Structure formats: structure tokens, C-alpha cells
């Protein structure tokens, strides 16, 4: 058992790391709160004064705020549906024995390791380019009209890119869960003559419930902060700017540090509300 002296030494040993972590987290937060309560623009930095909650009012009443909030929800919900449903289907296929299984698994997981900026450039220039992209070539071969993706379907294009990046993650988690399914349950269902759909809905899907919840939680946290894909493809035009990108436009475009700081805090609060409900959902799921 640890003595009082060893416990004190342990606390002293970790204190510098904890202090540095605290400073690293709290200093930016305090500065953001401070700037959000003041009028501060880079165009006129000398005109710096306390304006209370005017920045929050300006940001929340901006028509772009509602549009960016809706865009954030559309991106998150659409990507979650695509990755969870697609991840389950791919995981079921990858769980079956076939030749070259290891190579196929590596290829399926590869997109997850591609940087967001690189992934957006690949899709923008190689796949969705209206002049010579792969999808344009396929449309021409099939005698279909060429789609100008980032003009006609900008938000859908971003959703496709982000889903392509996160589908491997969902597949990996769900495949691991499928492979942990009790072999006795599989054999019992086969002996009982269970049909494939009944086997999936009554055995596989309930077994995947916890894994699906974890995928939803982790993906949501990251999907709320999508930025590079929007910046590279549409630069926030055509109603594709989400909340983080709106904060960026407020700072980079208007040079309004005060309003951008207020917007960043609003985005953090909304993200924490979403995370709170997701954690509660996971807790209930794990207790079940």
C-alpha cells in the first residue's frame, strides 16, 4: 500500500505536467472570453472597448448563423447515417472469408489515414472535376449529363468527401464488434434455421448497438469541427459554411476578433450540449 510520503511524491512529480496542461487549456479560453466581451477589430485595434454581450448578439442574430448551424447539422447527420449503415454492410462483407482478405481490409482502411486537405484535393481535382474528373468520364461513358458537383451540389459533395474519410473508422469498429460475436450464438441460429435477415436484426444488430453508439459519439465530436474540406472545395460559399467556418470568416474576412471569439464560444457550447446528450445516451446503452 502506498504511504502518505509516496502519495505526496507522486503528486509533486505530476504537478508540472498538470500545471502546463492547465495553462495550455485555460489561457486560450480566458483570452477568448475576454475578447468576446470587447470591441476588437484588426482594422482598428486602437478602438478597443468593453461592449458586454454585443458581440454575442451580433453573431447570433446574423442570418449566416442559422444557415451555418443548419449546414453543421446536415453534415453531421448525413455523414453519421452513411458511415454507420455503410460501415455495417462493409463489415459484414469483410467478416466473410475470401481470397485477398488482408489486402482488401488494408485498402478499405486507407482513406482514414489521408489528411483532410489532401482528401478534399483528391476529390476536387481527380473525381469531381467537371472538366476531366473520374465521375465526369463515367457520366460520358454512360451518356449521362455531366454534373458540376461543387456548383450544383456543393453540400452533398462535402458530405461525400467527409463520409469517405470516416467510413473506414466506422467499418473498423463495427468489424471488431462483429468478430467478437459469440460463436455459440452463430451455431445456434444456424441450427434453428434462422434466415439471414432474422439473424442480422435479432442477433447481429443488437450485438452492434454499443459499437454503433461509440462510433456516433466519436464521429460527432470530430464532424462538428469540419473545416479543411470546406475551405479547399467551396471556401464556405453556396451555404456550405458550418459554424467553425463561419467563425473563421468572421475573423479572416471581417477582421472582427470580438465577434469571432463570441462565435467560437457559441460553437463550443453547442458542441458540449450535443456531447452531453450523446454521453447520456451511451451511458444508458451501456447499462442496458
Automatic annotation (TrEMBL):
Keyword Nuclease found: no
PROSITE patterns: ABC_TM1
Transmembrane segments: 12-37, 69-94, 106-123, 155-178, 199-228, 257-279
Keyword Cell membrane set for record: yes
Segment forming the signal sequence: none
Domain of life according to the entry: Bacteria
Ranges where the ABC transmembrane type-1 domain occurs: 69-278
Cellular localization per UniProt: Cell membrane
Pfam families: BPD_transp_1
Keywords recorded for this protein, A-Z: Cell membrane, Membrane, Transmembrane, Transmembrane helix, Transport
Membrane topology: Multi-pass membrane protein
Family under the similarity heading: Belongs to the binding-protein-dependent transport system permease family.
Protein name, per record: Sugar ABC transporter permease
Source organism (scientific name): Labrys miyagiensis
Gene name of this polypeptide: smoF
Amino acid at each position: 500500500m502506498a504511504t502518505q510520503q509516496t502519495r505526496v511524491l507522486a503528486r509533486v512529480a505530476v504537478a508540472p505536467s498538470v500545471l502546463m496542461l492547465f495553462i495550455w487549456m485555460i489561457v486560450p479560453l480566458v483570452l477568448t472570453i475576454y475578447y468576446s466581451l470587447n470591441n476588437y477589430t484588426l482594422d482598428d485595434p486602437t478602438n478597443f472597448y468593453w461592449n458586454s454581450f454585443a458581440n454575442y448578439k451580433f453573431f447570433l442574430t446574423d442570418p449566416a448563423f442559422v444557415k451555418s448551424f443548419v449546414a453543421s447539422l446536415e453534415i453531421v447527420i448525413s455523414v453519421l447515417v452513411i458511415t454507420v449503415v455503410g460501415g455495417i454492410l462493409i463489415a459484414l462483407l469483410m467478416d466473410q472469408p475470401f481470397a485477398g482478405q488482408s489486402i482488401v481490409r488494408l485498402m478499405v482502411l486507407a482513406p482514414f489515414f489521408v489528411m483532410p486537405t489532401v482528401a478534399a484535393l483528391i476529390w476536387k481535382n481527380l473525381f469531381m472535376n467537371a472538366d476531366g474528373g473520374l465521375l465526369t468520364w463515367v457520366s460520358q461513358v454512360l451518356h449521362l449529363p455531366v454534373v458540376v458537383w461543387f456548383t450544383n451540389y456543393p453540400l452533398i459533395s462535402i458530405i461525400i468527401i467527409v463520409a469517405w474519410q470516416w467510413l473506414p473508422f466506422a467499418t473498423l469498429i463495427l468489424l471488431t464488434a462483429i468478430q467478437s460475436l459469440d460463436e455459440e450464438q452463430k451455431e445456434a441460429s444456424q441450427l434453428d434455421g434462422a434466415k439471414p435477415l432474422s439473424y442480422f436484426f435479432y442477433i447481429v444488430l443488437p450485438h452492434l448497438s454499443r459499437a454503433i453508439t461509440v462510433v456516433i459519439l466519436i464521429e460527432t465530436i470530430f464532424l462538428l469541427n469540419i473545416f479543411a474540406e470546406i475551405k479547399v472545395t467551396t471556401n464556405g460559399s453556396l451555404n456550405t459554411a458550418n459554424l467553425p467556418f463561419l467563425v473563421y470568416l468572421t475573423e479572416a474576412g471581417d477582421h472582427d476578433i470580438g465577434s469571432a471569439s463570441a462565435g467560437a464560444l457559441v460553437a463550443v457550447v453547442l458542441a458540449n450540449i450535443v456531447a452531453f446528450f450523446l454521453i447520456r445516451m451511451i451511458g444508458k446503452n451501456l447499462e442496458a
